[in-house]
């Protein structure tokens, strides 16, 4: 792609949310939705915890990328950070730039889709730096292309769309790889008072678990069909404000999910879940592929406060904007 991005002096900052999936996770894997009559279905919200990406002009032709480590290369092809490298290739912004990433939460292995949020955020910042204004669908589609088609990661497609669109949505994944995002009406203040997130302190590599889950799709199809139906049921419960019903659906989802493949749960994770339930939560589930990250519980703030003695606890606050561009002075475009 060509443009006049190399003469831009403006620092670009993108802000992109991570996500919380209520029900349907796993049905967004190609192994399921490409072979299912009705496709996959996920009900999720974008969480008001973000990945920030800055792009700024560099004095010389080199590329500097700052994340948990710092890379300075003369040729972007030499970047070890493959998500940034492929986003640069796709957008055509390939030299004379400095890119940094900052995360509100641990950036990998938390079950909140942070890697896909990063990809969406880098794409948004680089496109904007190049003078383009991509919409949410383009950002999500391009992030899927990078992560799944180019890099061959065995992941699903819900994270990219949740990060790009923001808000609360039911997301359908069809056999032809098309995706339909349907906004749903949820009282955001009710989310903060009726749900909380508990960080397990354990991170894991999601791709290993997801690869095993994809391979077992035929064997576990009945369970995956049940997870898909729960995405329908939880939408209705959320829109009706029936949070007790949501909690029970979360618990039912967790009981199915924890037995899909080895590695999704373990003694330490089961102990955290039992603790949350003993405090009076109606239900919960481990977010993402499993093996670590965050639990989502349906319960009161008081229940969450009691778990703060042993674990980091966050309220369930919703981001309504999706991936957004801001200037360095904080003015939103």
Task: Note the main attributes of this structure.
333 residues, alpha+beta, Ribosomal Protein S5, domain 2, eight-stranded mixed β-sheet, four-stranded antiparallel β-sheet, 11 helices, 23% strand
Characterise this structure.
The structure is a single chain. With 333 residues, the protein is an alpha+beta fold. It has a single domain (5-327), classed as Ribosomal Protein S5, domain 2 (2-Layer Sandwich), CATH 3.30.230. It has eleven helices and twelve strands. It has helices at residues 30-33, 82-91, 114-129, 136-150, 158-165, 188-194, 206-215, 221-239, 243-257, 267-278, 301-307; strands spanning 12-23, 40-57, 63-66, 70-73, 97-103, 168-173, 179-183, 195-199, 283-286, 294-298, 313-315, 324-327. The strands form two sheets. Strands 1, 2, 3, 4, 5, 6, 7 and 12 form an eight-stranded mixed β-sheet that branches. Helix 3 (114-129) packs across helix 5 (158-165) and helix 8 (221-239) packs antiparallel against helix 9 (243-257). The longest helix has 19 residues, at 221-239. It starts with 11 loop residues before the first strand and ends in a 6-residue tail after the last strand. Residues 328-333 have low confidence and may be disordered.
Distance between the termini: 23 Å
Overall CATH class = Alpha Beta
Spans where pLDDT lies below 50 across 5 or more residues: 328-333
Q: Helix amount, in percent?
A: 25-40%
Global mean pLDDT: 93
Total discrete domains: 1
Structural class designation: alpha+beta
Q: Spell out the helices and strands N to C.
A: EHEEEHEHHHEEHEHHHHEEHEE
**Radius of gyration, whole Å:** 20 Å
Strand content: 15-25%
Count of distinct strands: 12
Shape verdict: globular
* Tally of individual helices: 11
Q: Give a short account of the largest sheet.
A: 8 strands, mixed
CATH architecture: 2-Layer Sandwich
């Amino acid at each position: 792609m060509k443009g006049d991005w190399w003469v831009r002096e403006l620092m670009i900052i993108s802000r992109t949310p991570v996500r919380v999936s209520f029900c349907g996770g796993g049905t967004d894997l190609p192994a399921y939705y490409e072979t299912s009559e009705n496709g996959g279905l996920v009900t999720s919200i974008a969480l008001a915890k973000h990945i920030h990406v800055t792009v700024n002009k560099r004095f010389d032709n080199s590329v500097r990328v700052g994340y948990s480590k710092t890379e300075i290369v003369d040729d972007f092809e030499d970047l070890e950070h493959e998500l940034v490298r492929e986003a640069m290739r796709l957008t055509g912004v390939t030299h004379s730039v400095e890119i940094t990433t900052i995360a509100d939460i641990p950036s990998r292995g938390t079950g909140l889709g942070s890697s896909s949020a990063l990809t969406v955020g880098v794409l948004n910042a680089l496109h904007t730096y190049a003078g383009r204004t991509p919409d949410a669908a383009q950002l999500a589609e391009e992030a899927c292309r990078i992560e799944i088609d180019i890099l061959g990661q065995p992941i699903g497609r819900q994270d990219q769309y949740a990060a790009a669109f923001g808000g609360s949505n039911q997301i359908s994944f069809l056999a032809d790889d098309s995706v339909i995002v349907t906004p749903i009406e949820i009282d955001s203040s009710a989310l903060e008072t009726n749900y909380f997130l508990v960080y397990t302190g354990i991170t894991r590599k999601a791709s290993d678990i997801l690869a095993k889950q994809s391979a077992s799709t035929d064997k576990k199809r009945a369970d995956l069909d049940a997870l898909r139906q729960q995405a329908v049921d939880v939408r209705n419960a959320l829109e009706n404000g029936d949070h007790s019903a949501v909690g029970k659906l979360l618990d039912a989802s967790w009981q199915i999910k924890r037995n899909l493949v080895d590695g999704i749960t373990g003694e330490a994770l089961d102990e955290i879940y039992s603790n949350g339930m003993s405090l009076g939560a109606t239900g919960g589930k481990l977010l993402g592929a499993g093996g670590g990250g965050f639990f989502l519980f349906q319960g009161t703030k008081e229940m969450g406060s009691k778990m703060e003695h042993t674990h980091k606890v966050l309220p369930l606050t919703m981001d309504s904007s999706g991936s957004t561009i801001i200037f360095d002075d904080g003015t939103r475009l």
